[in-house]
Design a protein that fits this description.
The protein is of the alpha/beta class. The chain has helices at 13-19, 65-76, 98-102, 134-142, 205-208, 232-250; strands at 2-7, 42-43, 51-60, 113-123, 131-132, 150-156, 161-162, 169-177, 191-198, 257-258, 289-290, 297-298, 300-301, 307-308, 313-315, 320-322.
Length: 326
């Protein structure tokens, strides 16, 4: 199994780089208290995910319909048909679509993975218990019937303990062998990509739901941003999921686009961690839209006008971290 953790907090990056078991970790504040080298992702000429993929969701624990809808709508918004427009922003103009943000991944040649929402499975009984290892996550992902045209995403409820959660990562993307040779078009046992995202509302909102919660240490902003969907945990989970999905399609098996060591690489979004708008600096996410009525912050719009705050992504055409708002 190849794991790519979405690693965690600012100065912990130095420790995480040495201790990570794979590549692909996610944290909004990663890198912000260490000196950052220039961002240049190298194509290691390994396989990328291309074509149409269904994203299947396994909800581990209890989530309200409204919480599940936040993540489902984000995935639906990744395709151009799911893009929307916004009104009522502070500037009076519409924010870019989620689909336009995702379109950057198509510039990672030979990329262009088109993601759509697949099926959703509820595991409210916590069938594997309240403490999960990486092998537990792979087992849960395999329940979604993986094959070469699907990606599994496991979302855990706030009080589920996952190895490394909050200490070194907010989620991870990984790969594992498909259950049977028949599920692979490449002969023999194939591989499938999956991701795990934790809901940080209770365990570590300052690390994994920043900038919607004040961090426990490091540079502080005057006040945390108001989350666009009125749920700090789920809006934080969307930031993590956005990071992981981008990493999963551009570096699914450890030989794609990344910077740094293969064991703890910086990927499409994690290389730009902590940046959400122009002018970002340590402790400040950058300039974003603010809804005049609710005060909620966002920088992209999806289905039915739903708003999201999405992290910057490295653009291979410009060799820069690009935010949805320019």
């Amino acid at each position: 199994m190849t794991t790519m953790p979405h690693s965690l907090v600012p100065f912990l990056l130095l420790l995480a780089a040495a201790a990570a078991t794979g590549a692909g970790a996610a944290t909004p504040r990663q890198l912000f208290l260490v000196s950052q080298p220039p961002v240049t992702l190298t194509n290691h000429h390994g396989q990328l995910l291309t074509g149409n993929y269904s994203v299947n969701l396994l909800w581990y624990g209890r989530f309200t319909p409204a919480q599940r809808a936040v993540v489902a709508d984000f995935i639906l918004s990744l395709s151009p048909s799911g893009s929307g427009t916004a009104s009522g922003s502070a500037s009076g103009s519409a924010a870019p679509s989620v689909a336009a943000w995702w379109a950057t991944t198509a510039r990672y040649h030979p990329g262009a993975a088109r993601l759509s929402l697949g099926r959703q499975v509820l595991d409210t009984s916590l069938s594997l218990g309240r403490r999960l290892s990486e092998s537990s996550l792979a087992s849960l992902a395999s329940r979604l019937g993986p094959h070469r045209s699907t990606m599994a995403v496991v979302v855990t409820e706030p009080d589920v303990l996952v190895d490394g959660f909050c200490l070194s990562r907010c989620g991870l993307h990984a790969s594992a062998s498909t259950p049977s040779p028949a599920s692979s078009g490449h002969g023999g046992r194939g591989r499938f990509a999956y991701a795990w995202v934790g809901n940080p509302a209770e365990q570590c909102p300052g690390e994994c739901a920043w900038p919607f919660h004040q961090p426990p240490y490091g540079p502080q902003q005057p006040a945390p941003l108001v989350s666009p969907n009125a749920d700090v945990g789920m809006d934080g989970a969307v930031i993590t999921l956005a990071t992981l999905l981008a990493g999963a399609v551009t570096n699914p098996y450890g030989g794609g686009f990344f910077q740094g060591p293969a064991e703890a690489p910086l990927e499409a979004v994690s290389a730009c961690a902590g940046v959400f708008g122009a002018g970002a600096y340590p402790g400040y996410p950058g300039q974003v839209r603010v809804d005049a009525a609710t005060g909620a912050s966002y920088n992209a719009v999806g289905v039915a006008g739903r708003r999201f705050l999405l992290p910057a992504m490295w653009d291979p055409d410009t060799a820069q971290c690009s935010t949805p708002l320019v």
